[in-house]
Amino acid sequence: MSSSWTDIKNSDLVIIMGGNAGEAHPCGFKWVTEALANRSARLIVVDPRYTRSAAVADLYVPIRQGTDIAFLLGLINYCISNNKVQWDYVKAFTNAPYIVKSGFTYQDGLFSGYDEAKRQYERSSWDYELGPDGFVVADNTLQNPRSVWALLKQHVALYTPELVERICGTPKDKFLKVAEMVGECSTPAKSMTSMYALGWTQHSKGSQNIRAMAMLQLILGNIGVRGGGLNALRGHSNIQGLTDLGLMSNLLPCYLTIPTEKEPTLDVYMSTRGFKPLRPDQTSYWQNYRKFFVSFQKAMWGAAATPENNFAYDYLPKLDLPSYDVLRTFDLMFQGKLNGYFCQGFNALLAFPNRKKITAALSKLKFLVTIDPLETETARFWENHGEFNEVDPSTIQTEVIQLPATCFAENDGTLVNSARWLQWHWAGGTPPGEAKRDRWIMAQIFLRLKALYQKEGGPVPEPIVNLDWRYKDPGNPTAEELAKEINGSALEDVMDPNDPTKVLVPKGKQLPGFAALRDNGTTASGCWIYSGSFTEAGNNMARRDSTDPDDVGIFPKWTWSWPANRRILYNRASADINGSPWNPSKKLVWWDGAKWTGYDVPDIAPVTAKPGVVGPFIMNAEGTARLFTRNMMRDGPFPVHYEPFESPIANPIAPKIRGNPAARVFKGDMEQFGDAKDFPYAATSYRLTEHFHFWTKHNRINAALQPEFFVEISDQLAKEKGITSGSWVRVWSNRGSVKAKAVVTKRITPLTCDGKTVHIVGIPLHWGFMGVARKGFGPNSLTPYVGDANIETPEYKAFLVDIEPISGPVA
Fold first, then answer.
1. CA gap 194, 14 in Å, rounded
2. Which is it for the CA torsion 345, 349, 350, 351, positive or negative?
């Protein structure tokens, strides 16, 4: 989230798209109800289904899944066409005035540089024109036809209310009502916040869904202000922390990146990570990348990371591919190219797309290790459970090792919520039976592996044997020890760069924040954005002071928020170019004549960043936010409407393009995509309040509340297919088939898209063949094996199926 849960109470308009906060985030949804009750705020819900969020909304608007970009670009077009733009914000705080290279073009759904055979772009034309001084050329009048603003205006002009209705199935009058309400938030007097979740990310263009809303919010002037923001609602209790700590195949902690084979030395690696400012006097805070990186290396390898060996740069793996995401990993497994797989706190068999392929892939492993507090379908993929897992165990030779772990209530440590708050929690119980905490399990695996290397040797043992593992009990590090290590400490006296005689942080002390990090090996920090969370003052994550000065929703002494305990990112943008609040009734930070001050920690250098000089978006080399994202995304610097890979209609703006043209598709998976002539209905997956992922089917109370797998269909589709509510149906795609009870409901209605009636089938995901709930299927027996073009999140939310009534099982 760019803001916080508690800031939502300051919103004048809340729009929920790509999520269902009222059902999936019921505790956080409290802050929406605060805004509705105390500010007379309004709530818009745009969703294929009439959800529990929609039930309390001022306006519910139906939309066909996978068409959000067309809807959002339609809103941007409306705002531009009707002068619903916060011009002072856009001109000063976005890259709207910057001039784009003359080689950049867009036509018929494709940008310049596309290679159809490789399904990828050569992106050098997607960049700014630079002047002789090396800085971006700008036209502050926005009249240059090559300006970002002119190109954006041209790009979105296609997305009229009529085209939005044609693509999305959203009635024109309802779309225009949304546009009118959104447009009211283009002045400093009102702010809108956006709430989204997996309904946006789980598409083959999921990243661009989010980009489109970010662009809309920038045009409205709603980023960095109270009651504004672009807010991702993280689903699992520590998904945000997982992302922060780099548990992805191409990342190191705190959003540093793993080197590639083309970066054999530290100098080469750093040559593309200089982040030189693109406009005069800008912060471009990623210029400190080397400090973050070297401090991480010191946290990993301590004394073994020295200037002489480039701080153990050679210890890091060098990627031969952009990433080894879940889709690539399981495709390699499917090809028989993986020997082993560790599955920790995850249920891959039910969670990954095309379950048939996942089963076949797991069956080709030599060994599988699961680390989980519960029996999972992944650990038991080899067992025959009849139609719910129809396999022949005699043909599967995979050795499965189950390591029982603890659940969150039996652990201590931190959970990072959607708002970036690191909240310390204490164990509420002891592990049952043979269950062990994950820290103990990982430590034992490491110590045994290290002992084998020390005894037997092997190629490149140094990254293992030299790992800095100085814990009081090496076999069981404590949460406090790890938290302190992640925060960082001074390995030598840290000196003041402006006064070489002054010690800022004495040797051995905890760092007060990431500003103290150095690139000479004198500091160590496991995750730079967490620096400040556990200082010499103590464990800031354990703070529980609920005071909130002037009731602004900041709560600065409740736990700790990254970065630097800042609650609203880019909050300098809450003040105009001169440093005065856009809206005095919603002031957040401001310039007092000598420094930046306010309710929140200013997201800018407090003294040296003078108003009118340094831009508010300090992480960007421009100092401004990006309406045009340059060459940083694989599928385009502007979002484009692409249909899902399985769609009931051809793309109205580019009929020859299937899916996202830059999305990776593995051999054999393209052939498994279904067509509308065979699978006429548009399906989507979702979650229920009564269940949590695949955990709560092990709990009798939850299992009683929602005991049985079902699918939702409209009255109209039920009548067309001869299906009655409560009867049994079979739903199938080109990859699999499931049986379920039918729930016939008015929550789903048919949509008219490009002149065709489109029926929607809703499929919840909480059932399997383990646990105390009734055995059932799930949507991932049906979903396609393809992901987002940028981060490879699978396209779970839009696929094609057919449905028919069947006889139920014999009692």
1. 6
2. positive
